[in-house]
Every structure is written in C-alpha cells, then in structure tokens.
Design brief:
By secondary structure, this protein is of the alpha/beta class. It has helices at 9-17, 35-40, 64-77, 92-104, 123-130, 143-159, 171-195, 208-220, 237-252, 279-292, 301-313, 338-343, and strands spanning 31-33, 47-51, 82-88, 107-113, 134-137, 164-166, 201-205, 225-229, 263-264, 322-326. The strands form two sheets. The chain has a six-stranded mixed beta sheet. Helix 9 (237-252) links the parallel strand 8 and strand 9 (263-264). The structure holds pyridoxal-5'-phosphate.
Length: 345
C-alpha cells in the first residue's frame, strides 16, 4: 500500500540504525559546486552540485564503501571467512570487496567474467590482485556458464572448509547498498540544508544506491527526481531499482510501495554496452577532468554524467534547475582505458 503521509528523517533512520554496521567509511563525503563544468556546458546549463562519494576512503573509495559497512557486520555475524564475487576486470565491486577482505582478514575469491579489459592487468583488476584476491577466469561470459562456474566455485570453497558469504546472491547483501543510501540521503539533506538548496534532479548510476535515494525521497516527501542511469548491463533497469527499493522497504518495515512513477531509468546513456564508452561518455569524462579535476570513468560515472548533459541538451533540464550528481567512484577505471581516453582529447 502506498504511504499517505511522509515521515521524519529520524523515523527514516531509526530502523536503519538498528541494523548491525561497522563504521569505517570516510563520512560525510564533501558536497561541492562545479561552476567551471557548468560554464563549459553552455548558457542553458543548470547549477551543478557534486556529491563526492568517490571519496569514501578504502582503496580508492566509491559508493560501495557505504554498503560494505553493513555487509561487514553481516559477514561477521554469520562467521564467514570468504567473500565470493562474480565480476569483470573493471569491477569496482570486486576491488572494494577485496579491500574489505584484506583489511578485515577475510579471503576474497573472484570469478572473473572475461572481457576485452583483461590484458594488460591494470586498474581495478590490478588492485584486486595486489590486495590478495584469488582470481578465477570464467570460461565464457554466457550467463548460464557463469552461473554454473560460480556454483562450482562455491561448492569447491565449501568442500575446502571455508564459510562463504555469497555477495552476489545473498538476500541481505543485495539490499545492503539501499539501506546505506538511506543514511546517505539524510547526510546529503543536511548538507543541502546548510546550503539552502533543494535539488530538482539527482543523477547517478542505476542500482542499489539509486534505489536508496528513491526510497528516501518518497518516504521523506522530497521533491527531487532521481535519474537512475543504466550503464549498459542491466537487462531490466526499472525492475532492478523497484526490486531493491521495495525489498529494502519491506526489510525495514516501511509501509510504502515504490513504483515506476517514482524515478526515471533511462537506458540510452548505457550505449553501446557495459564497459564500452560512447563518444558522449568520453566527452563527459574530458569536460569534468579539464574544468573541475573531477575524474569520472568510462564504465560508470562517465555514462551517468553523460545523462546530465543529454537531458540538458534535450531541454529536460534548464538553467534555473539544480542538478545533484552523485559521483559513485570508479576512479581506477581510466587506467584501463588509456587508448580510448587519449583518442578523445
Ligand atoms: C562506480 C559505480 N557506480 C555505481 C554502481 C552501482 O552500484 P550499486 O548497484 O551498488 O548502487 C557501481 C557498481 O558496480 C559502480 O561501480
């Protein structure tokens, strides 16, 4: 049933604070204006605020560090000693789970999905190896093969006597990020209060974090519109956000139903596909770097920022609007794309 009234920030946080959490992220992350980037986008550009969730600490940071605070507590409560991950070489998720494992004495085992970015070993994959991940090469990127090989990996680890935390499929693991971004939303609102600003639009990569901002916005009655930008690998980007948001609401006991009316989930900025930057992605990365020394990446944030530019050029955002962009991280990824980035200069 949809809620008929909004709740206070305190009521939003109360059930989240009851969840076990180990705090190690560098919070609050800065909220910064980007005046030179605004100017570079032309006279119709909106006011731009950047939430620096690339600065959360832990091995180059990123949005997932917020999630890991909840996941670590859950891992410890269950007595797990091994984290399993199924991701590509450019995955920030794999790098950050390996960082968590290194820092808290766990083992990280990655089934690496084959991609064009496997060689040479650099960026996130290099950092993962450096921090001690066991990396197993999957034989194909076919989803059925990956599922089978991931299951074989889980079975092998259990036979070897490890207690495994399956970050890919565990029901709480998959909503930890949405819970974390309810706290992130209140952190953001407090910063916005200080500035005296109400953003009209929030742009970020689609997923668990975006679902947290959608859910928080609806429960608190905020007027912002969340644009959950698909970066090319989510078969059904709308249901992805709905699933995270509604499972989290249920888990925390909120009487609310998130529907497709509550957010935008554009797929056009994910083209031509996961880990494949378009010209617009490269333009976004170049402009942000050259005007604000903001490092976006070709897989995630270059695409989510290209959505801000695209929606502005379509006339869906005006110079009287305020756009809040969540920089969700991915900072090691430009090192895996030197050819593409250099050719865009
Ligand atoms: C840089 C970056 N931004 C956003 C996301 C989306 O993450 P989530 O679904 O956890 O919000 C990812 C996921 O890998 C990411 O690496």
């Amino acid at each position: 049933m949809a809620i008929s009234r909004t709740i206070s920030r305190q009521d939003l946080l109360e059930p989240v604070h009851r969840l076990p959490r180990e705090q190690f992220a560098h919070l609050p992350t800065p909220l910064e204006e980007a005046p030179r980037l605004r100017e570079a986008l032309g006279p119709g550009a909106p006011r731009l605020l950047i939430k620096r969730d690339d600065q959360t600490g832990l091995a180059f940071g990123g949005n997932k560090v917020r999630h890991l605070e909840f996941r670590l507590a859950d891992i410890r409560a269950r007595g797990a000693d091994t984290l399993t991950i199924k991701n590509a070489a450019v995955s920030n998720h794999a790098r950050l789970h390996t960082a968590l494992a290194a820092r808290y004495g766990l083992r990280s085992v990655i089934l690496k999905v084959p991609s064009a970015k496997d060689h040479p070993v650099n960026g996130n994959l290099l950092l993962g190896r450096l921090m001690g991940a066991e990396v197993i090469d999957a034989s194909s990127d076919d989803p059925d093969v990956l599922d089978r090989e991931y299951q074989e990996m889980l079975d092998r680890l259990e036979r070897e006597g490890h207690s495994v935390y399956d970050t890919v499929n565990d029901p709480f693991s998959t909503i930890a990020g949405t819970c974390a971004y309810l706290i992130g939303a209140v952190e953001l609102l407090e910063q916005l209060d200080t500035l005296g600003v109400k953003p009209d639009h929030i742009f970020l990569v689609s997923g668990a974090s975006a679902a947290g901002l959608v859910l928080a916005g609806k429960l608190l009655g905020e007027s912002w519109r969340v644009h959950a930008v698909n970066i090319g690998d989510q078969v059904d980007p709308v249901n992805l956000v709905l699933d995270f948001a509604n499972r989290t609401a249920e888990h925390l006991g909120f009487d609310v139903q998130i529907t497709t009316d509550d957010f935008d989930a554009s797929t056009e900025y994910g083209q031509p596909g996961y880990a494949l930057p378009s010209d617009a992605t490269l333009e976004a990365i170049r402009l942000a770097a050259q005007t604000e020394a903001l490092i976006f990446d070709p897989v995630y944030t270059g695409k989510s920022f290209s959505a801000v530019m695209g929606e502005m050029r379509k006339g869906n955002i005006s110079r009287d609007d305020t756009v809040l962009f969540i920089h969700t991280g991915g900072t090691p990824n430009p090192f895996s794309y030197s050819d593409e980035l250099l050719s865009a200069l």
